[in-house]
Amino acid sequence: MSDVLGVKTILHPVSDLAKAKAVYTALLGAEPTADSEYYVGYDVAGQHIGLVPGGGQGGPVAYWHVTDIEGKIAEVTGAGGAVKEAPKEVGHGRRVATVTDADGNVLGLLEDK
């Protein structure tokens, strides 16, 4: 059994959360399921789409859901990847991290406890 559960979360860095919220609400045809000054999230068609303020540079990051974030980081770095952001708790037992591949592409990792 694989410890990778698939890409279920995609986070978009945005420079203006209110403007982005209007666009994504129209695009997705749904109201946010999480709505605060530091994060707006939508749950649509089995995916979680999140808007993260302070961005607008670079593209969205797909987050691979995993059962063991440290173990997966060890595997990825052992294969030549690098840690971009170490695992951090983001609330409700959820931990996230980012790694890069050999070309610098950012890959998100997400673990729910």
Helix and strand element order: EHEEEEHEEE
How many alpha or pi helices? 2
What's the oligomerization state?
A: single chain
Biggest sheet, in brief?
Answer: 8 strands, mixed
* Principal-axes shape call: globular
Low-confidence stretches: none
Mean pLDDT: 92
The whole-angstrom Rg is: 14 Å
Helix share bin: 10-25%
Structural class: alpha+beta
How many beta-strand elements? 8
Spatial strand arrangement across the major sheet? 2-3-4-1-5-8-7-6
Strand content: over 45%
Task: Report how far apart the termini are.
Answer: 18 Å
How would you describe this protein?
With 113 residues, the protein is of the alpha+beta class. The chain contains 2 helices and 8 strands, in the order E-H-E-E-E-E-H-E-E-E. It has helices at residues 17-28, 69-78, and strands at residues 4-14, 34-35, 40-44, 47-53, 61-66, 82-91, 94-100, 106-112. Strands 2-3-4-1-5-8-7-6 form an 8-stranded mixed beta sheet. The chain is globular, with a radius of gyration of 14 Å. The mean pLDDT is 92.
